[in-house]
Amino acid sequence: MENKLFIIENFIDKYDICKYNKKIINCPIRFSGEQYFIEDQNEKKIEVSNLFVDLQHDQSLFSAAHQVLNKIHLAIENTFKVHVEKELGIGITVLKAGHSMPLHVDKGYGSEEEEKEINYKTPSGFPSREISSVFYWNDDYDGGEISFPKQNIKIKPSPGLLIIFPSNRDFPHEVFPVKNGVRYVSTGFWYCSWK
Protein backbone atom coordinates (compact mmCIF):
# COMPACT_ATOMS: atom_id res chain seq x y z
CA MET A 1 0.00 0.00 0.00
CA GLU A 2 1.31 3.44 -0.89
CA ASN A 3 2.05 5.66 2.09
CA LYS A 4 0.76 8.71 0.27
CA LEU A 5 -2.03 11.29 0.44
CA PHE A 6 -4.34 11.65 -2.57
CA ILE A 7 -6.47 14.71 -3.34
CA ILE A 8 -9.24 14.11 -5.88
CA GLU A 9 -11.06 17.23 -7.03
CA ASN A 10 -14.57 17.03 -8.50
CA PHE A 11 -14.95 13.49 -7.19
CA ILE A 12 -18.70 14.05 -7.49
CA ASP A 13 -20.15 16.13 -10.33
CA LYS A 14 -20.77 19.79 -9.36
CA TYR A 15 -24.39 19.59 -10.53
CA ASP A 16 -25.05 16.64 -8.20
CA ILE A 17 -23.24 18.32 -5.29
CA CYS A 18 -25.42 21.42 -5.72
CA LYS A 19 -28.56 19.26 -5.77
CA TYR A 20 -27.45 17.34 -2.63
CA ASN A 21 -26.55 20.53 -0.77
CA LYS A 22 -30.06 21.90 -1.23
CA LYS A 23 -31.32 18.76 0.49
CA ILE A 24 -28.65 18.81 3.23
CA ILE A 25 -29.48 22.33 4.40
CA ASN A 26 -33.17 21.37 4.68
CA CYS A 27 -32.49 18.31 6.85
CA PRO A 28 -32.62 18.52 10.62
CA ILE A 29 -29.36 18.34 12.55
CA ARG A 30 -29.17 15.85 15.37
CA PHE A 31 -26.92 15.77 18.41
CA SER A 32 -25.22 12.44 18.95
CA GLY A 33 -24.37 11.86 22.57
CA GLU A 34 -22.80 14.37 24.90
CA GLN A 35 -20.73 17.47 24.30
CA TYR A 36 -17.36 16.21 23.10
CA PHE A 37 -13.95 17.68 23.97
CA ILE A 38 -10.44 16.44 23.26
CA GLU A 39 -7.09 17.86 24.26
CA ASP A 40 -4.69 19.36 21.76
CA GLN A 41 -0.91 18.96 21.98
CA ASN A 42 -0.80 21.70 24.64
CA GLU A 43 -3.47 19.89 26.68
CA LYS A 44 -6.01 22.61 25.91
CA LYS A 45 -9.56 21.23 25.66
CA ILE A 46 -11.07 21.68 22.20
CA GLU A 47 -14.78 21.26 21.50
CA VAL A 48 -15.32 18.78 18.69
CA SER A 49 -18.55 18.65 16.73
CA ASN A 50 -21.00 15.98 17.73
CA LEU A 51 -23.66 17.17 15.27
CA PHE A 52 -24.84 15.22 12.26
CA VAL A 53 -27.26 15.70 9.39
CA ASP A 54 -30.28 13.47 9.97
CA LEU A 55 -30.10 11.48 6.73
CA GLN A 56 -33.22 9.52 7.69
CA HIS A 57 -35.22 12.72 7.10
CA ASP A 58 -34.74 12.54 3.31
CA GLN A 59 -34.60 9.10 1.71
CA SER A 60 -33.21 10.44 -1.59
CA LEU A 61 -30.32 12.14 0.27
CA PHE A 62 -29.72 8.97 2.29
CA SER A 63 -29.53 7.03 -0.98
CA ALA A 64 -27.25 9.62 -2.61
CA ALA A 65 -24.92 9.59 0.41
CA HIS A 66 -24.63 5.81 0.09
CA GLN A 67 -23.83 6.13 -3.61
CA VAL A 68 -21.03 8.56 -2.68
CA LEU A 69 -19.81 6.11 -0.03
CA ASN A 70 -19.73 3.25 -2.58
CA LYS A 71 -17.78 5.41 -5.02
CA ILE A 72 -15.27 6.32 -2.27
CA HIS A 73 -14.95 2.62 -1.44
CA LEU A 74 -13.99 1.82 -5.04
CA ALA A 75 -11.61 4.79 -5.26
CA ILE A 76 -9.74 3.61 -2.16
CA GLU A 77 -9.48 0.03 -3.42
CA ASN A 78 -8.25 1.16 -6.84
CA THR A 79 -5.83 3.75 -5.47
CA PHE A 80 -4.29 1.72 -2.65
CA LYS A 81 -4.70 -1.73 -4.28
CA VAL A 82 -6.40 -3.21 -1.22
CA HIS A 83 -9.78 -4.63 -0.26
CA VAL A 84 -11.39 -2.40 2.35
CA GLU A 85 -14.39 -2.34 4.64
CA LYS A 86 -15.74 0.77 6.32
CA GLU A 87 -15.78 1.08 10.08
CA LEU A 88 -19.30 2.61 10.12
CA GLY A 89 -21.92 3.68 7.58
CA ILE A 90 -22.16 7.04 5.87
CA GLY A 91 -22.75 10.17 7.88
CA ILE A 92 -22.49 13.92 7.33
CA THR A 93 -20.83 15.76 10.19
CA VAL A 94 -21.78 19.36 10.88
CA LEU A 95 -19.11 21.83 12.00
CA LYS A 96 -20.47 25.19 13.09
CA ALA A 97 -18.61 28.37 14.06
CA GLY A 98 -16.02 27.59 16.71
CA HIS A 99 -15.69 23.90 15.91
CA SER A 100 -12.25 22.57 15.01
CA MET A 101 -10.17 19.43 15.35
CA PRO A 102 -6.69 19.54 16.92
CA LEU A 103 -3.71 17.82 15.37
CA HIS A 104 -4.22 14.05 15.52
CA VAL A 105 -3.86 10.77 13.67
CA ASP A 106 -6.84 8.51 12.96
CA LYS A 107 -5.20 5.19 13.79
CA GLY A 108 -5.06 4.40 17.48
CA TYR A 109 -1.97 2.52 18.53
CA GLY A 110 -3.47 0.74 21.49
CA SER A 111 -1.61 2.06 24.49
CA GLU A 112 -1.03 5.40 26.19
CA GLU A 113 2.74 4.89 25.86
CA GLU A 114 2.48 4.56 22.09
CA GLU A 115 0.12 7.55 21.88
CA LYS A 116 2.62 9.67 23.84
CA GLU A 117 5.48 8.39 21.68
CA ILE A 118 3.89 9.64 18.46
CA ASN A 119 2.86 12.88 20.23
CA TYR A 120 -0.48 13.26 18.46
CA LYS A 121 -3.77 12.92 20.28
CA THR A 122 -6.12 10.42 18.69
CA PRO A 123 -9.68 11.44 19.52
CA SER A 124 -11.41 8.19 18.65
CA GLY A 125 -8.89 6.14 16.71
CA PHE A 126 -8.79 2.37 16.59
CA PRO A 127 -5.82 0.12 15.82
CA SER A 128 -7.69 -1.44 12.88
CA ARG A 129 -7.89 1.81 10.90
CA GLU A 130 -5.64 1.74 7.85
CA ILE A 131 -7.07 4.36 5.47
CA SER A 132 -9.00 7.57 6.12
CA SER A 133 -11.27 9.41 3.71
CA VAL A 134 -12.67 12.92 3.91
CA PHE A 135 -15.37 14.06 1.47
CA TYR A 136 -16.54 17.68 1.35
CA TRP A 137 -20.13 18.64 0.54
CA ASN A 138 -19.84 22.44 0.58
CA ASP A 139 -17.54 25.45 0.82
CA ASP A 140 -19.87 28.31 1.80
CA TYR A 141 -18.19 28.86 5.18
CA ASP A 142 -15.08 30.67 6.41
CA GLY A 143 -12.21 28.84 8.06
CA GLY A 144 -12.42 25.07 8.49
CA GLU A 145 -9.32 24.34 6.40
CA ILE A 146 -7.63 20.96 6.80
CA SER A 147 -3.88 20.86 7.27
CA PHE A 148 -1.33 18.04 6.98
CA PRO A 149 1.80 19.65 8.50
CA LYS A 150 4.22 16.79 7.72
CA GLN A 151 3.27 17.07 4.04
CA ASN A 152 3.19 20.89 4.17
CA ILE A 153 -0.38 20.85 2.79
CA LYS A 154 -3.24 23.14 3.80
CA ILE A 155 -6.52 22.84 1.92
CA LYS A 156 -9.62 25.03 1.80
CA PRO A 157 -11.91 22.28 0.51
CA SER A 158 -14.25 22.72 -2.42
CA PRO A 159 -17.55 20.86 -2.84
CA GLY A 160 -16.99 17.38 -4.24
CA LEU A 161 -13.37 17.15 -3.05
CA LEU A 162 -12.15 13.80 -1.71
CA ILE A 163 -8.96 13.31 0.30
CA ILE A 164 -7.75 9.77 1.03
CA PHE A 165 -4.67 8.93 3.06
CA PRO A 166 -3.18 6.28 5.34
CA SER A 167 -4.51 6.61 8.90
CA ASN A 168 -1.04 6.14 10.39
CA ARG A 169 1.36 8.44 12.25
CA ASP A 170 2.84 9.75 8.98
CA PHE A 171 -0.36 11.72 8.32
CA PRO A 172 -1.26 13.83 11.35
CA HIS A 173 -3.86 16.42 10.41
CA GLU A 174 -5.97 19.15 11.95
CA VAL A 175 -9.02 21.20 11.07
CA PHE A 176 -8.83 24.93 11.74
CA PRO A 177 -11.80 26.57 13.45
CA VAL A 178 -14.85 27.33 11.37
CA LYS A 179 -15.26 31.12 11.61
CA ASN A 180 -18.79 31.39 10.25
CA GLY A 181 -21.19 29.30 8.23
CA VAL A 182 -21.60 25.54 8.45
CA ARG A 183 -19.13 22.95 7.13
CA TYR A 184 -20.57 19.62 5.97
CA VAL A 185 -18.14 16.71 5.66
CA SER A 186 -18.23 12.92 5.52
CA THR A 187 -15.28 11.17 7.11
CA GLY A 188 -14.58 7.49 6.69
CA PHE A 189 -12.23 5.07 8.39
CA TRP A 190 -11.39 1.87 6.55
CA TYR A 191 -9.71 -1.39 7.52
CA CYS A 192 -8.24 -3.60 4.85
CA SER A 193 -6.97 -6.97 3.70
CA TRP A 194 -4.11 -6.79 1.22
CA LYS A 195 -4.62 -7.76 -2.45
List the topology elements.
Blueprint: E1 6-8, H1 14-24, E2 29-31, E3 36-39, E4 45-48, E5 51-53, H2 59-80, E6 82-86, E7 93-95, E8 101-104, H3 112-118, E9 131-136, E10 141-143, E11 146-148, E12 153-155, E13 162-166, E14 173-175, E15 178-181, E16 183-194
Antiparallel strand pairs: 1-13, 2-5, 3-4, 5-7, 6-16, 7-16, 8-14, 9-13, 9-16, 10-15, 11-12, 11-14
Which labels suit this protein?
single chain; 195 residues; alpha+beta; Jelly Rolls; eight-stranded antiparallel β-sheet; four-stranded antiparallel β-sheet; 21% helix; 35% strand
Describe this structure in words.
By secondary structure, the protein is an alpha+beta fold. It has a single domain (6-194), classed as Jelly Rolls (Sandwich), CATH 2.60.120. 21% of the residues lie in helices and 35% in strands. It has three helices and 16 strands. The strands form four sheets. Strands 1, 2, 5, 6, 7, 9, 13 and 16 form an eight-stranded antiparallel beta sheet that branches. It has a four-stranded antiparallel beta sheet with strand order 8-14-11-12, with no helix packed on it. A two-stranded antiparallel ribbon has the order 3-4. A hairpin with a 5-residue loop joins strand 3 (36-39) and strand 4. The termini are close together.
